[in-house]
Structures are given as C-alpha cells and as structure tokens.
Amino acid sequence: MVVRSKTLLLAACAAALLGLPPSAGAAPSRPSGLAVTAVAGGHARLVWSPGSDGGAQTAGYRVYRNGRPYKRVRGRALRVRVGRTRVYRVAASNSRGHVGPRSNPVKVVRGHRPPRAPARVRAAKVGQSRVRLAWRPGRARGGRIAGYRIFRNGLLVRQVRGRRGSDRNLAAGTSYRFRVAAVDTQGYQSGSARLAVSTDMPGATRGRAHAFLLATTDESFHDLQRHYRQIGTVYPTYYECRASDGAISGRDDPLITSWSRLRGIRVLPRFDCQRPGTLHAILTDAGLREATISALVALASKHGYDGINIDFENGDASDRAALTEFVSRLATRLHAAGKRLAVEVSAKYEHTTSGRSGFYDYEALGAVADTVFVMNWGWHWSTSAPGAPDDMEMCRKVADYVAAMPTKARFVLGTHLYGMDWPNGGGPAHRAGALEYADVNALTERYRLAPALDGLSDAWTLRYVDPAGTPHEVWYPDATTIARRVRLARDRGLGVGFWRLGREDQRMWDDPQIAPGT
Asked: Comparing C-alpha atoms, which of 481, 473, 478 is closest to residue 443?
C-alpha cells in the first residue's frame, strides 16, 4: 500500500484498528481528466474519470462551483447550465464520508465550443502488452488544442500533445476498446474517434519443469514471468487447511492463474495441510474427507485450474493407507472432470512404513496420482544441527529409489532453491531461518565472507558472527549444485521440479538441462 501523506497514514491505521477495509479510513484518490463536452441548448456536460485506484472504494462525487460545494452525483458526468463564466472541480467521496483531493479546474464559458474530434484513429503498433495509436488531428473552435486524451474501456489512460500515444502494461491476448478525444486550453473536450484492438497472444511455454510459486510475494510471480518458457506446471500456494475445522481457506489470484494458463502453463494450486491433528481428521473422518474432496474439485472447476496439488506433511505413518485412499478418491473425481492431481511426498530411499516418510506409499500414490513430487531435501531442517538440507549422497540414494518405481514417469524429483541460517549451533532452541540466494549474497558482502563448497554434501557453506556476537552457520545451493541435482533426475528419466520461484541464483536458468523443450 502506498500512503501519500501523514494524514492518510493515520486514517489507514485507524481503519486497521477498527477492523475496517484498508481503504475505508482513507480518502479516495483525485479524479482525472475533468472536461467540458456536449455544449448545446444553453447546457454543457462535465465528464471525468476515477483516480489512480480505479475508484474501487468511491461511493460518489462532489462537484464544486467557484470553490463552493455545488452538487453530489453517483456517476461520472453532470449537466450544467451555460451562463456566467464558472469554474468547476470534482472530488471523490467514499461511503464513510471521506472526500479526496479536487480535480483539475475547468471553466464553463458562454459561447465557447469543444474542438472537433480527431479522425481515423488506428493501431500503429500492437504487441503483447502495449498498443501504440495514431490519429488525424482535431480542430479547435476557440483557443487552441492542448492535447489528446486516450481512453481505454471508457477510462482515461493519459493525455499526450502530439498525434500518437501508447498504452502499456496490457494483458496479452485481450480485446480493448480505445477512443481518442481532443482537449483545448479551456478544458473543453471533443467527441471521440474509436477503435477496438486485441493485443497479441504470448508465446506458449515449451518448458517441462514443475515449480512452486508463493502467491504471497510479487517476486515469485516476477520470477515466473522471466523464466516461464522453461516451466510446464506451476503450483501456486493458494490454499491451506483451517486448524479449527479442516475447512479450506485461501483464495485464487486471477492474475497469476490467467497469466499462466494463457501461456500454456498448467496451473495446479497447492492445498497445504501440515497440522497433524487437522490432517488426521481430513483423512479419517468420512464426512470431512468427502467435503474436502468436493470442495477441491469445485475450486478446480470454478477457477479453470488444470488440477489440484496436495501437500500433506507431518502425517502419522498410521494414516498411510488413509492418505492413499484420499488421493485415490480425489484423483477419480478430478479425472472425471478432466483435471489432474499432483501430490507431494517426503524424501526416502527405501521402503519404510514408519517415521516421517512412512506416511507415504510411493508405489500406491504413483498408481493413482498424475504427478508425485518428491521433496528431495530435509536431511537437515530448521531445528536440527546445521548441515546441507539436500546432502548429495542422500539425494542420489533417493533418486535411485524413485527410479525403481513401476510408474517412474509420473515422479518429479524436486530440488530446493533456498538456504538456511542456523544461529548458535542450531537445534530446537536456535531455529534456522530460510535464506534466498540474494540474501546470502548480501551476507557475504556485508561481512566480507568467503563461502566454501563442502565436497561431501555438495553444498556451499559459510560462517559469520552478527553484531550481537551470535555465531551463525549457513548452508545453501547455487546454480552449479542445483544443476547436479537436476542431472540426478534427468539421468534416471524423472521429472524436474523446484521449490520455489523467487530470488534464487538466476544462473540456474542457463542450464541446458532445463532449456525449453527438454
């Protein structure tokens, strides 16, 4: 949220304390493009556009004449009488009575007429996210032409001086309605030249990699935008189980979903549940299980997802069969609707029925799910002693075990892209924090560190002491170590996956093993 002044900051804070929507305690933004149009029969029409926030919280507008309140209106136009010269301004107001800043002024003058409309507007250039328009000039009927206003779908985009102008940050493969109007030095606006334009379709991905995307950070989405041609399936973190009753909480992000699907990327949002008690209830309570399955299928249908991703962790090994039954039932329902199912499993390198990985029956899950994403890390974790989370020797053993599955073509060997920072030797009392590659680089610069590659685990490590005197030990991957783990999967005919998109070592995307089409 961008707060424009100290007053708005205090209003926003007050709204938060009262449990109001963030914008309820703040004034709406300044209307734009106030102009005079349609002068006839002793009357003129005032028109304007919402401010930069799109008017989402606007309840109406207040019109001022010669500096004094004149009228209140709900729409974005008002018919006024032409007589003595009068100056008008407009301000938006919201449902709580907050009034925003006033618009630019315009004078309604007896005998003055709007300019003639520009003609023959055309699309001079069209791309995936930009349209450049050109037109023939309008003609002033008093004063002179000050510029031309470009409107998209009825709202003002910008004003330009010449006879060309662009609109940017558009959605690819989308139809827009543009119009161009001339405005003179008095603020009188002409009629419009109109044009419908569709932006170009984007190039479809040829990628095969699977990748998780944090829907709570823009950087994760930006990373997808940079490298989408190498990614075939994305798992945005939209949903999780609610601790109180196991219900599904969370929401779709239509920008991420539509952007990905438009480029041919499969979208299977993650349903995350790592609370042991809640997870046990979802798997073993027949009513809750069926309600959860029905809700997931409904979400996939409602939002046009290609399927659903299930991330159930910290389950008890005694619920192993219940997990397989849940996945089987969900897969049946999704497949009937033309959807897919992916499921995460903890890493293991032998057939186990106890402990953390005993919760997962690889072979049974691989028989019913379309994708089994193996989280090939976790050998050191946030409350363990420091060490490489993806120790290479263990990763290799897991890869060999997975490659022996009867349905190995459905298995994806996942690689993590983040590091971990343990203070004071780690352990339950000194939990590690997660670090992205950019964070590690910042540490090395700040403390002038020289990282070392640990040959046994094939992971980078460094040590430092913070300003409070606390010693730290960091273990992390870079593009070279990630490439060797990708090779484990490729050599065994397994899929390649990543947790997660963000600020990883960007050099990893230069790896020919994950080039588009491979």
From this structure: 473
CB 279 within 8 A of CB 315: yes
Question: What does the alpha-carbon distance between residue 474 and residue 443 come to, in Å, rounded to a whole number?
Answer: 10
Q: pLDDT tens across 98-145, in order?
A: 899 999 999 999 999 999 999 999 999 999 999 999 999 999 998 899
* Crossing angle of helices 286-303 and 320-336, rounded to 10°: 40
* DSSP-assigned letters across all residues of 73-85: ESSSEEEEE-SS-
Edge-first strand order for the sheet with 452-454 is 433-435, 419-423, 471-476, 459-465, 452-454
Residue 413 to residue 268: CA distance in whole angstroms: 17
Domain 119-198: CATH architecture, name and number where available: Sandwich (2.60)
pLDDT in tens, 236-288: 999 999 999 999 999 999 999 999 999 999 999 999 999 999 999 999 999 99
Q: Are strands 419-423 and 189-198 parallel, antiparallel or unpaired?
A: unpaired
Per-residue b or e along 411-422, where b marks 16 or more CB atoms closer than 10 Å to that residue's CB: bbbbbbbbbbbb
Q: Give the CATH number of domain 6-108.
A: 2.60.40.10
